[in-house]
Design a protein that fits this description.
The complex is a heterodimer. By secondary structure, chain A is an all-alpha fold. In chain A, 77% of the residues lie in helices and 0% in strands. Chain A has helices spanning 3-19, 22-47, 58-77, 79-84, 86-92, 95-100, 105-111, 119-135, 142-168, 177-190, 200-209, 212-223, 229-260. The two termini of chain A are 30 Å apart. The longest helix of chain B is centred in the middle third of the chain and has 18 residues, at 187-204. In chain B, strand 8 and strand 9 (232-238) form a beta hairpin. Chain B starts with a strand and ends in a 7-residue tail after the last helix. Chain A: Keywords: Membrane, Transmembrane, Transmembrane helix. Chain A: This is ABC transporter permease. Chain A: The chain crosses the membrane at residues 25-47, 59-80, 116-134, 146-173, 193-220, 232-250.
Chain lengths: 262, 326
Amino acid sequence: MDLIKVLKSIVGINLLNELQYKGDFFIQFISVLLDFVLAILTVDIMFSQISALNQWNKVDILVLVGMYRIFVGIINVFTIPSLSALPGSVISGDFDYVLLTPVDSQFFTSMKEVRAWKLSDVILGLIFIIYIYATNELSFSLSNLIGALLMLICGGIIVACFYSIIASLSFWFNDVSNLLIIIPQCFEWAGKWPVTIFPGFLRILFTFLIPVGVAITLPTQALLNSINSSDVALTVGFCLLLILLSRIIWKMGVKRYSGASS
Amino acid sequence: MIEAQRLKRVYKVAVRDKGIKAAFKSLFQAKYTSVEAVKGIGFSIARGEIVALLGPNGAGKTTTLKMLAGLVHPSEGELAVNGFKPFKRDRSFLKSISLLMGNRKRLNWNLPVVDSFELYKELYDIPEQEYQSFLDELIELMDVAEIIQRPVRNLSLGQRMKCEIILSLLHKPQVLFLDEPTIGLDNIAQKNIRNFIKEYNKRYNATVIITSHNMDDIESLCKRVLIINRGELVYDGDMKRLTDLVSNEKRIVITCKDNPINMEQYGTVQSMEDGRIELLIERDRAVEIIPAIMTNPWVQDIDITNIPLTEIIERVYTYGLSYEPK
């Protein structure tokens, strides 16, 4: 089974679906743009009062805001819309059809819904970072770029696995939709700041439990040339661990679902 | 093709007393009870058979169907479908079966039907040429050429069901599980679906297991019936034999000017009003009784029918196979 081919078809059908609602696409884009401008203004106002935030200067924070936009765009294209639909389909029994499809059920559930227009966040974030680098005469090496991309990919996988674990709880509990709403809200609240500015407890929370730090702070640090190899190794290890954990929990959940449905 | 032996399924079901206090208590101290949905049933179905799986609500037929399709793990017993253990959900197994549930939809609501077909072509990894020629064949059989370009939301229920059936057959399954395939459809749409299932079974020698509360589906499609009641298989065999087992009667409806005849001498009077008498007589005595009734000058019309399948099945549900006409 060619998963890339399947993914291409899923993206295609979702794109067609979204084209049915062109007006919605436009309104969403305006809302994203407004949110982005507000985040930049907040940084601007804050740095008119202070010169650095826990060793992060204004430009660093602006790069982080751009990275946040890229990351949120990526997870909103596949992960969040697809996995958010899981509790409903478990309750209604529509999940039966996922299990009857000859494609890996976790892959299919995680990729089923695609919000292609969320790629506009990614593009907006990219343009913004390029703009910040150009206007501040900053530069990055190829290794910075590879490091940032690697951290971004690991961050994406970590958040997808984390979200999958939370969504899998719907196999045990009636409805975990509210729990799934909390995660993007945490990203919204904490993702726009470096995880290092939070006090101990929150830093652990946003690193391991709701991995905002790994997903946004580390790729930014990698791009700004301040990440060390032990952070990279730890992130890759954490990523592999979460893949394994989410796989185990998914399989246990599916087994339980099959036992519960009638 | 399908072999089931001592198939059993036990569910753990949460229970609680009524009221808010009990609801809160159950949050911390949940109570469970075991429900035996299927109690060790066994049957064997050959390739190409169309078999009805019947039973009242809660009898265990959907659980059985889901065990056959690999959605529910049997608690005990042996099960093989096409040589596979269904619950392992091997890709080859999933490609060889299809489960259609009349009350669920898989077509994308907003898009033209053909877009959903294209997606399923990729999900089932069907080669382009094979897909196109088979789709053309299904479109012709179902007579839906004019609607597949339209968004699903603009189709009638009958049209949607036709397209759902095509979608579930695109990968040419050898075993078809149909759960209430004609639910909510008008008579013409029901007839079309039944004809299509018959034709698909004939052309591809496919095995079809169907559950339906619509006895027209069963009468028209199935020679063999499996009846499940309270989790037990109470009958497995020919439809005709079932009719003979629980009904040795014929039903006669007599229209007459008056009610002067003593009908009790012929059989059991089921109803008598406004010159319409409904009578149950012994099938073996029909040739003797019917002429006797017809010689009566008050009789205007007489209508002789077998006991309808709906009633036969109801008798099996209520009395088992030991039904004795009163």
